[in-house]
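Troubleshooting: if your tokenizer reports a length mismatch, compare your output against this known-good record of 751 residues.
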Amino acid sequence: MGKPISDWNPHDLEIHPAGPVLKGYESGTVPIAVLPGYVPRLHDQVLTEAVQDASAGRSRMVILVGSSSTGKTRACWESVQPLTHKGWGLWHPFDPTRAQAALDDLRRVEPCTVVWLNEAQHYLGEPRVGEQLAAAVHRLLTDSGRGPVLILGTLWPEYADQYTVLPPAGSPDPHSRVREILAGRTLTIPDTFDQDALRATAALAQGGDELLADALTRTSTDGRVTQDLAGAPELLRRYEQGTPAVRAVMEAAMDARRLGVGLHLPQAFLIDAAIDYLSDWDYNQLAEGWAETAFADLARPVHGKQAPLRRTSTRPERRPPGSPTPATPPVAQSAGPAFRLADYLEQHGRSTRRAKCPPASFWHAAYTHLSNPDELSSLARAAESRFRLQWAYHLRHQVADSGRLDALVELARMRAKAGDQGGAEALALQAAEAGNASALFFLARMRADAGDRDGAEAFYRKAADAGKVFALVVLALMREEGGDRDGAEAFALQAAEAGRPDALVDVALMRESDGDRDGAEALVLQAAEAGDTNGLVELARVREEVGDEDGAEALYRRAADAGDSRALTDLAWMRAKAGDRAEAEALVRQAADEGSPRALFDQALMREEAGQRGEAEAFALQAAEAGNVDALIDLASMREEDGDRDGAEALALRAADAGHLETLVELALMRAKAGDQARAEALALRAAGAGNARALFLLALMREETGDRAEAKALALQAADIGVDWLHEQQDLGGWWPYGLDPDGTPTKPW
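Known-good structure output:
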């Protein structure tokens, strides 16, 4: 697989060219793009250690996380150079598509290979095969007979967050395997060079590196050296100073990418989408051939051979005669040329256009010109989250017409939410008859909601037979609630054998509540043997709540022995409540040593309860830096309850300064519940000013309560334009706009 590392041109591995160098070459030859000198930074040490481990025979995986053009790919390239002379090869899967190439051939990777997953979202985030790829990567890393291998990749922060943040309880979890494979394997790269790196850059520049010398004339104060080298400032200038037609096309492209359209944007789509981005004046000034002129302008390269919008094409799939049909057939491509937006401008659009809903021409162009069902599904979700219900419905119809049964289920859900139960059931039945297991589950829930227990069970059984293991969990709970304990246990065991031992836990907790302690404990032990220690912890908490501390401790200990660090922190709290703070601290430290994500959180709250406020804040801030802001929220709540309102607000503001605006929103909710509307509104305004949709919606509700309905609607509209998944479920929005909103924000008429 792959080829020797020394045979690769780094630019073929998607390292941004820094600029052409003509010196030393005859006139008329193709300019050769060269790499500027490399400045090692702190993250390079971690990469070096990973390479050393791989060289010593231990497979490793590192995914660099950072914003566009911050040097992620270059860092990966520099790190593998020591392997060049040790016979290692490098494999970059990309043909016919990145995800398909990786899925097809990952099993063929040989020892001493670097697997190059640049822009890993195109692999791990691919909607249809990303989870399969994560599982295949895990197998490659853990199969000692296939190593050593080194897997290197890059991700933007928003993708890393999307894949690693746990979904809300009860919501789908589309990235569970990806989250597992990324855990402990990501490394954040800073956006800018620090002072040490800038001094090293200056030394290379003084030594004759012209590219770095030129970059330092613009970046010596802000440290954005890599972005400058990649041509970001010129790209931004071309956008900001472009003609109205150029800006319209680019904004349509930015919106398409941020809402889920793929890398290759059809020209016909962009031309039609751009129309409503123009003012009436600019539209009337358009000359014949305006589109050709705009695309020609956008194709002109900037520093580093990057173009704001460059023409691209999808490689045709080439397979030997007689090859088996791929599991995931290729998606039909739109006719006509396609274009790719420059990475830096794409990210710029994600940031600056986050609060803007695309105009009507965008949605109409998508409906008319796009054919990829995954892209149309993403746009339908984006439309619905922005309360543009009519366009969401029509886009989903396009997906359903392409043969995607999951779109029929989504249409059924929208019909049911609108009160059309008959239409919803008809669509779900259509999908179910075609073999869609989710449709069976949906029908089962509809029957259950209507009180038809037998009908619900019949559909749950069909869903289970079709592979929906969670249906077995529901059947177990239904039987337990109905008093059929043998039936409940049989279904729970079936679910456990199919990979859902949590069914045993659910039944166990119901038995505990009925007083059958032995039966409950037997079931959670079965679940633990099947790999789910959650039941031991949950049952221990129940025992602790009723005062059975000995029974709780025994269960906590068993869970901890099985590797569940949550049991240690729960046991620590039990010790703290009993006054044994020394033992509590020791248990939390043990949990921290074992990598518990809750350990910092618990240490913060324990120090707060002990009156050690400075240490509590330090632990809470560490937890926030690691991605868990719950400790800051809880500390703020504790100080609020103690009457220290200034202290609570100071914590919330520190969290907000670190980018965690939700802490401000939570504190605002606390103030509102306490009747302090003025301070609640001040906090919500601060979060809303930074673009937090939840804060905007909270402000809307506050304005509604004071009778300012017009301002309430305006704030709710701002929140809707940003788009939040829970927003369309708010009853207030349904009351204001029963049929949704048009793209321009006016209420949609009945449709």
